[in-house]
Protein 1
Amino acid sequence: MTVPGRRSSTFIRLLRSGFTDPSAAARLLDSEALASVRTDPVLLDALGATADPDLALLGLVRLAEAQSDDERPVLLDTLVSAKPLRDRLLGVLGASEALGDHLARHPRDWHALVTYEAADLHPGLAEFEHGLSQAHDPIALRVAYRRCLLSIAARDVCGTIDVAQTAAELADLATATLRAALRIASAAAPDDAAACRLAVIAMGKCGGNELNYVSDVDVIFVGDAPNGADEAKAVQAATRLASHLMRICSETTIEGTIWPVDANLRPEGRNGPLVRTLASHLAYYQRWAKTWEFQALLKARAVAGDPDLGAQYIDAITPLVWQAAERENFVADVQKMRRRVVDNIPASQVDRELKLGPGGLRDVEFAVQLLQLVHGRSDAGLHSGSTLDALHALAAGGYVGRADAAQLNDAYRFLRAMEHRIQLYRLRRTHLVPEDEADLRRLGRSLGLRTEPVAELNKAWRRHASVVRRLHEKLFYRPLLDAVAQLAPGETRLSPRAAGQRLEALGYADPASALRHLEALASGVTRKAAIQRTLLPVMLGWFADSADPDAGLLNFRKVSDALGKTPWYLRLLRDEGAAAENLARVLSAGRLAPDLLMRAPEAVALLGDPDGLGPRTHEALEQEVLAAVGRADSAEAGVAAARGVRRRELFRTAAADIIRSYGTEDSPAEEDPGALVDRVGSAVSDLTAATIAGALRAAVSHHWGETLPTRFAIIGVGRFGGHELGYGSDADVLFVHEPREGVDEQEAAKAAQAVIAEMRRLLQLPTADPPLLIDADLRPEGRSGPLVRTLSSYAAYYRRWSLTWESQALLRAQSVAGDAELGARFIELIDPLRYPAEGLGEDAVREIRRLKARMESERLPRGADPTLHTKLGRGGLSDVEWTVQLIQMQHAWSEPRLRTTRTREALAAAHAAGLIPAEEAQILDEAWVLATRVRNAVMLVRGRAGDTFPSEARELAAVGRYLGYAEGTVGELLDDYRRITRRARAVVDDLFYGA
């Protein structure tokens, strides 16, 4: 019995030794099984040095209790007298609950940790084969496998071998296990073994000699017939052997399982035959294989079965692997695979995902493999299946910067060590960092972090993940700059040919021009060139993420040339984290935004201001424009200033739209496309109204002074009045005037005509700024009618002659500039026309439907695909807008919420009023938003307006990227557009045509 004082002393010592539950540890030490060693200070110190002293002590007690009476003293005497066994055994017990369970079930296996010969320190494949040689059935194989695994884990946790050696030993053990399993399968079916030749090709981490503790072992099977035998029967026999081999390793028995053998990397995956001949493999790879299959073959290694057949397979596929980078869409395919991997991680696990998450192991592996495939065509020194060996070879060859390679090497080793220790605990396949405090503490201590293991672990993990995130893109680009800058004599660097291959593989269509741009930007010893060399590796990665990297780089050179001498430009990009990425997105997304920026490069400052991309109010815009016009010496100078404001604000709007559509590393893409459309429509409409107000002020003040002889108002109609203007939209307007008191009507009309002509002239003067076209064709009588009318003339016309389509056109009328009181009276005048009391009669409804049907048949451009025309095509803008407008004209008289000029607001109001079911309203809204975004995208990409998808592949890809479609998925974009608009047209047929 322990006295209180002694117990207290033991309690404190256990606590200091790292036990988290000293009371339970004291009880375990008092157990009968440890009676002979419980007071030995060496044992307690050794337990305290393990990753989890509590777990190690529990495992030791279980192991001692499982020994026979004769064997237990041998175990305990050896434990306290032999440091190698003590460190190995307790180290394993403190790191792996699963191996502790194995030792409790197989208590004599502790002897596997006693020997300390040179071969035992670094066993190879032969030693593992010897260790499995006596296993003649699946259960015995599992026991022998765990015994060998026990020795690997002991060397690992004691630091005898590093993480790369551990992974290589695990791969050797897997190779020996596959050979033993094939031996067992062949012994069970000797006739099948005699009837075929079978080679087992290891893939993935096993093939690359970098296996985890618990991982699927990826394989491919190659079969053939012995001399003169029937090939079909040989393949059938080989398939039975291969299937049995897989079951031997994968099935769960009383001794558990070893690991799943996964043959899904074979041609056609799980849909293809398990075993093929070499000729069948080659025929598939030469004709049908996808890029990812060649990337997987990087690690192919013959490991079991017929060695000659395995060697023939490797010799045959190796040339195909190193030609993969020449395939069409090679880089796009690789990047798409990476994105798909990341996209498939549940959101709740992304931050804990050690392998597949951002800054994880897969980032390093994908980057290294991509560079191997690109440069391995001409450099056989890169032909390695091991990630770390390949990284070393890339650095030695100048394909990767040495400092970058060293940092990635350290990060990869740390992350792999974390992965190993996480899996070792329960021998379960996982890549998730645990959340439980005790698990994190054990993990940290197992990696040598003893002071504050949890805090130190999290800090180190985040630091290494950050290094990977920061470097894995730079890995591609930094050597390109070294190749053109040529600053450090004697440093190994990329040859021009290798640099060109690198750029081409990363999506640059004109590598020679790209290298010239890099040389112009980064060469020299100036401070400017030094900053560019810091920026460009990241910028090039962002350009490559776009549909047109060449244009992004060219535009960046132009902006840099224009602003390179200003002190703030490069400092902004270097110091303001978001500015550089925002600029890269804007410069590579199409022509419009870069064109706007080139005319006033100083607008790049907006990209570094957290509030710089927010929309400005109509009042603020109009105030700035009118002030600029007021300061000008002439009408031309005034409107030039107004158009300059418009250019800058169009750039602000376009840049914000692009950045929110693409997303950035720190800010995901906007999830609500309707919000993007509304933001652009409102911003461009407000900007257009302010510009027109400025042109009106300039035209009046420089010809008539402060006051025009007639009161004058401009009414926005169409998309302008609906706050739905796109980047390429004209401004549809009506002009209304009212002679001032004492002014002759003829003189007033003449003044009104003159001011309109002057406004149009000023807004279309040839300058570097985009023109603003004013279109008045929606006025009464169209082009045949007078350009401007008095308010009383409008009233008389609408009273006597107004047609239904003219009333419909007025649904989106809103006063936008000029005399506000006159504009308000005009709106008051037209309200009874656009919102007729008691709604529309049947004749009016029929007339609207007839006009719509005629427009569909006559106005669609010849040769245009009606399923892809955003304005007039099936389920496009016209379909949705006419349907909504018909509902407004029928019901707005009794439903005030329908009295809005905005399509989406009216659609929501119709649903709220019970006039459209929720599902149909959603379908119409989705189609309208998508068609509007396509039009905006076309203008952003091509720099000119269009109602159809671009035919040029790169432009179409850029439209797709803006809409959120990854590279290589434009087919999905077109399919989605057709599907969404087809559903919208069905709703239109129901609601508009009454079908």
Protein 2
Amino acid sequence: MSTTTGRVPGTLVRARDRDWVVLPGTTEDLVLAQPLDGDREFVAALFPDEVCEPGFGRPEAVPGEAGDFASASLLRTALRIASTAGAGPFRSLNAVAVEPRQYQLVPLMMALRMDPVRLLIGDDVGIGKTVESALIAKELMEQGSARNMTVLCSPSLAEQWQRELRDKFGMEPELVLPSTAARLQKAIDDPGRSIFDHYPVTVVSTDFIKQDERRDAFRRHCPDILIVDEAHTCVGTGGNEQQKRYELLSALADRTERDRHLILVTATPHSGDPQAFAKLTGLLDPSLRTLDTTRSADRDKLARHFVQRRRHDIKRYVGQETPFPEDRDTQDALYRLDPDYARFVADILAYTRQQVRGPGGDHHQRMSWWTALTLLRCVLSSPAAAAATLRTRSLIAATRTPAEADKLGRAAAFELTDDETAEGMDVVPGSLPDEENTAGGRTGEAKALADFAERADALAGLETDAKLRTLVDRVKRQLVDGYDPIVFCHYIPTAEYVAQYLKEELGRSASVEAVTGTLHPDARQARVDELTARRGRHVLVATDCLSEGVNLQEHFGAVIHYDLSWNPTRHLQRAGRVDRFGQPRRRVREITVYDTDTGIDGLVLKVLIQKHKDIADQTGVAVLVPDQGRGVLEALASALLLRGKQPEGQLTLDFENDPDFGQAREALHKEWESAAERESKVLTKFAHSGLRPEEVEAELTALRQALGDPGDIATFAREALAQLGAQPIGDARDRGFKAPVDPLPTGLKHALGFYEDGDQTAAPGSAPRAQAKGRAKTAARDLVFREDLPVARGEHALSRTDPAVRALARYLLDAAVDTTLPPEERPARRLGVIRTAAVDRRTVLLLARYRFRLTLPGRKASDDPRVLVADDAQVLAWRTGDDGRRAWLSDEETAALLTATPDLNTLPALRDQQAARAAAELDDDEIHDHLAARGLLLADRLREAHQRVREAAGQRGRERGAAAVRRIDVQPSGAPDLLGVYVYLSVPAAQQPASGGDR
């Protein structure tokens, strides 16, 4: 037993079958400690008589214990995978279940050069901004620079953020929404303690927390890290709601109150409004508000806080290819309205014009205007949407002021809101007049609307709806070509109508489901999972509730716009569901359905949507339409409702010659092109292509060597499973494989989530726990691995951070030190002896785990330094010379030994003799001295790596960075653990190699 003498904070101890880190407050009678590889919030008090030195202990050379040639490689890889306390400057990568692309580490490297972190991530749609921002937050928390964090986002994205943080980053975020806030607060024992003090990670609805009664409390208790998603919606010249968001963020960003870390995330940082962009960057640093990005010096200053890449910037980065679709095949699907439908649209248009041009006050005129526009959009969407809105009470008619009518009407007709969220936008706006405003003379209006609704009902079906026929034809074409499509509709009744007829037409040839705003956000993902889990082809019909926050690229390769959105950003988001990283197809498709009769959708497509695409293609900049296209849309509506004429029952709309519309279009395009040209001139600076690539490559190469190449992980998983009796079977779909679970040891099966009885998942006496989504594994008895992310639920990526890979590694480590297990359950051994032509004399390889005390500076000069524990797996080797002296091998020579294969069988007696000799040699002083010197050398290398990635750019950054760098220290923490000893013997010249020996 050991005493607490010398147990200073940061040292390691062993107790209760796990390793612990000693914490401040330890006394001679009690050791306060935190588990090294467990819950960071958990602290235990250990008694002196249960504490001992950490480590595996020395390998014992008992007869029959020495393993075969694969033991060294298996055990070394298992040790690297099982480690969750990396020694390098990127500690978070040891504790996340995602393998970041190399370009995704650039924002992390930028962040490590700041204190506090103030960063705007403006990467393109589908590049991985969520991973980039969450990785920074995870790193800050792993390093002790932050204790808690909050993500501010729209309600529709809250569950998506929760899943990403939980599944990929090992966090347990709580959702703070109107439906959850009271419950979360009630669960806290201390009524004076805030939700944000109690729960380490929270995901918060921006619109919920910005309200006056909650804003001040959040400002007082906002965590150390704040991530703001869709940050562009918090600035600009929008309405009162946007101003409230900006006021909240301005208060939270104020560094005079607190130096918190702030990460802003948006795919569209440039709104075409220089003032809005200045407000956005000013949140990071007030001095950035006045920068002129046309000046080189100002761009340099902004570049320290802003990263923005397009696909061509990162498609190949530091030698790594990122598989984006190579091309997007865009197609138009034009149709002409059937005669009865055309007459119906013409009659609706004539009716709405009569309502708009009729007498009435300003408020009545505004209500009539917006109700007419929304009715026309529903009629052109589908008979189902038309009938639904004609029978629904108008939300706009219930307003009390012209301003209120404009706000609701603009959101419903133009899809323009302060926050650009799609939540709630798929509900039909209604056309019936408000009951309180209905006098005797208004009953005729209600009767006319009821007659129109009956006519709409009669137009439903393939025989009378050319738009529906066009869609069915296009969907069938996509399925024949091997593309499973997503059909995007504007309104809930349209999506349900389309899904109904597609099911009837496609029958058993494809599964069809609809996902709309009627489902809770979490249920939407479940509906998609249910659809894609079915065998065969799939068609997903959705409203814009799925246009953001849900990644669909794995199962779908085409997007069909059944209804055009009048907000170009929405089309970008729709296409981004399939056209993103992880899409297995080289080409994706985007098909737009619109009519040639009214000209309305065609004009919107030309003036807004196609213009948006043209600007992005020509300049490489995705600039939001200035003022959300409000001016040109209102000019279009005026031309349609106030000045348009056509013979009764006919559609002959001509907007091109309308002077007001033409002027509005020219003004919009001029402003849009000017903004895009301005931003394109400075874009390359913020791609950070000049971020010292050779330095980045050196750090990433070191990181890959520490974590293991994906090929190493695949080899490890295959060999480990094969030696445990679960022979892998290749999968024709990709270079992954699957393996049967039943032959595996029971303990490993449970660690992987496979149980013979569901009750085994519960603790004795407790209720069975609910199975995690995608992990219901009592039925499927195969482990399925894929070469790379993304993977389907229940499957695994061949990544060191994948839970199944890590469980396999942990089992191999534990089994290697447990000599009571049967030999067939211990594929990795701590001792091994082989004969191989790879050496010409006896060579001994050591597998060692070094532990280090990493001291990082506090956030302020007056703060105490942060002491962290890290570990690093190392392989060392020596050969015995003719004079009997040892010669230590270089790192390259040692690495080559790991690939050596046996060329001659080794007799059991010789194997035991050599293993015992090698184990005895570990007591030599020379070996102790060399291992100690190696630890000091590794500590120096680690110190240099930590200092290098924290070097700040700019004069002020260099001054602060230099002071911080001087306070970084790395020291070995005790002697290394010697986990494995392996002897390589040369093959006698007189003997021929035996094929397959010791394999």
Protein 3
Amino acid sequence: MKLLVLGPLELRLEREALDLGQPRRRAVLAALAADCGRPVSMETLVDRLWDGDPPDGARSVVYSHISRLRRLLEEAAAGEDGGAAGQPSIRLGKVSGGYVLEADDDAVDLTRFRSLVARGRGPACPDAERTGLLEEALRLWRGVPLEGLSGAWAERIRTGWDQERIEATLAWARACLRRRSPERVPELVRPLLADHPLNEQLAALLMRSLTDVGSAAEALHVYTGIREHLADELNLQPGPELRSLYEELSSGAALPPRQRPAPQQTAPPVPAQLPMNVRPFIGRDDQLADLTRALMPADGGEGATAAVVSAVSGTAGVGKTALAVHWAHQSRGEFPDGQLYVDLRGYDPQSPLSAAQALVGFLTALGVPLQEIPLRLEDRAARYRTALDGRRLLVILDNAASAAQVRPLLPGSPNCRVLITSRDSLSALVAVHGAHRVVLDALDLTDSLALLRALIGERVDAERACAEDLAQQCARLPLALRVAAELVLSRPADPLADLVAELHDHQRRLDLLESGDDPRAAVRAVFSWSYARLADLPARLFRLLGLHPGPDADLHDLAALAGESVNAVRRALDGLVRAHLVNRIIGGRYGMHDLLRVYAAELAALHDPETERDAALTRLLDHCLAASAAAMDVLYPAERHLRPDVERPASGLPPLRTAEEARAWLAAAQPTLVALCSRAEEPGPSRHTVRIATTLHRHYERTGHYTDALTVHTHALRAARSVGDPREEADVLACLGAVHRRIGEYDSAQHLHDTALALCRRTGYAAGEARHLTNVGVLLELRGRYREAAEQHERAVVLFRSVGDAQGEADVLNNLGIVLELVEDFTAAVERYECALALYRSMDHPLGEASALGNLGILLVRLGDHTAAAGHLERALTVFRRLGNTSGTGHALSNLGNTLSGLGRYAEAAGHQREALELFRRIGERYGETGALNGLGEALHGLGRPAEALDAHAQALEVAREIEEQEEQARAHVGTAAVLRAGEDVAGEVTHLREALTLYTALDSPRAQEVAKLLGGH
């Protein structure tokens, strides 16, 4: 009897496939087969079958399927010769709390595959034997594993098994190449690459093997294929190894067989941030050519020692941005490493973008995790220059106010090009940085008429004199010409002469108020003409848009600002967009040119009383606070009682029904939220700024937006203190302390919590005191002062119980369990975790429940019960994924990977650690990153890959030192020592063990004794 899972699920007797029945029964058999030889609890079976959301009676359904499967196996056993020791070859047994599927060594293809791979990857196995064993293992695969089974667990297990197959294939192919047998490689690697078209290691080995058998052209075709896949799906270029191979092949150089492929390196992201090109774009041929000569010189910039900078200057509305973006689109092929773009909003009267804020966007686009972005401007600029070093990128700095604003944004690499637009001449850049200046003037009359013709058609030629007059009245400025053209199009029955006369009348009235020949007066005349045609609501909405502090707004923002219905505002916006007074941008949001924003704000000051303007901003603040609260209720429903009570505004809220919608709204609204909280003149500062800060603190903590968090919380602290509210001040200090802890500034965090503790005790704020006590406990734990940490947590538990805060009590019990586990008081740790778990379940708090389950799983690993631990961690992982909690998902993956390493399932473990590492780096959580790196090193050591294991531990040690995390430092030393011990490097092993012993001793950790025993053997 054979059970086959490496393809469609089959139970075979001789050559006959037995009928397994309905899909759920097949899923039960698969869930048992995945852990063949190990007990699987009933809870784990239920989780695997229903992805953590079982129906009533789920256990009864499982019992029924188990009974039928046992009967099927018994009937099949009667038809075979008995198997080992007279037993059936596959047996389904009952164990305490669950079931176990037991099988002979070769009865289950997955078990057979793993056995062959383990033998073939043994460090002492000669290549001749290695290739035979691994090829036999790979030929057990018949297609997609568990094909036909649906659900998250099935997908997850397929991913893990696929990774094992890839690892085995890579090891086999490398052995073949070492043995000078490249002709065998394409047969197995080519179909696997087709299933995993983004795997650069597979592509590199296939290219090497094809080249070695004389098929260099086919190898180049492989490179072209993966390059297209990477560009289309990930917007990335191939990594260094593939590019090097391609260059060797393209140059005709012979590619000698490699003893060992170079380690794969992750290619940095290739940003593509250019805005949409302007259509139609008329004229400017001389300026485009001038930019090309300056930025793309004929000699390629040979001998340059700094980035080449060009600055386009000119009056407002002259088309500076359009010119820069158009040239960038024409030349983007010259910048294979990407294009960066930022609107610096230098002339925005309310919220110009600082260089520090711009650097956050650039560094994120360049792949720098949020938490690795420094706080100081100088440090950010240095990190930015490092990220650009050696890369060929175009950087567009649009709407700069001054040379001082752009100077920190200039790359140091001579391969980069910078294109700046500004109304200022930027003389300092020309003098100091050798910038090339392009002065942009108004369009000439011919190009002005050509633009009007492209916009309004044949009327230009039919009434040419009037069209020329219109162009002159618009000062031949593209912005004014576009707005005027829209007015002409909106009145097709009116002769062009009448419209020009109307515009002339507006210009005459404005001339009575303005003096001089500033071309901006012409733009204002066109704006005035267009504005005068608006109905009451669109006109009022246009004026209020000048008050909005953010760079853009959504429909519901503007409905709140205007105090009107969403439908009415939508209709008004449609008219403003048609009039080119407002732009519709990506994501259903709306923005406007800074010149129009200034004009709108002037009109608001002229026509709307101050009380109405303040009321509009208050409505916007109410709306943003309510939408933030609604989004947080979706993402963190169990913590609703910890956030301020917020009323739903009459204008309504955007759709925030799912986690995806909530996260998308928070991401889009973030610049507006920061700008609102930063307004010094905000009416009622404590009422809004503090409540926004305390509402969003969990979002900032979980997503890693620490720079925005510091801005919002700092303004909130100032607001709370300005109104003398000690409770609000204490709550904001908790938010600030948490951010400083996350970015590794432990001293600052301690000072903030100490300040708050004194405030809470002076005012009798027990819940606030408890919250700060447990935060101090976490800080002490991170510094290795476990006994003191436990004391703080214990005091916090008492206080939370005294005020009836079950959520706070559960959180602290969870934290306390971690500390007790670190000092190896396992009985007490289990007790705290189980108490926390019971509280979370009583509150229907899935996030807390998953956290407690994960912690219990970690503890069970320490106690050696890896199977039970895996069950807890799989349930935790399912919940974290369902909630979209990136940090929790990463920790559950990493801890599950540690558990799988303990079970000897190293390939699966490595896959989990890599996924966790990717998540932690994406959100910038460095503590999680160092743990995943150590876990990856341990898994790679188990797989017999010492060089990669050492590299992972070295990276973990570096990160742990940067954040002063001593536990993971010690773990990295122990892991490194284990690898060196296997390689018989006794001196190196002893050095690392001594380092670990010093750290564990300083931490007062019982693990110091384990390390001392290892050292005693030397």
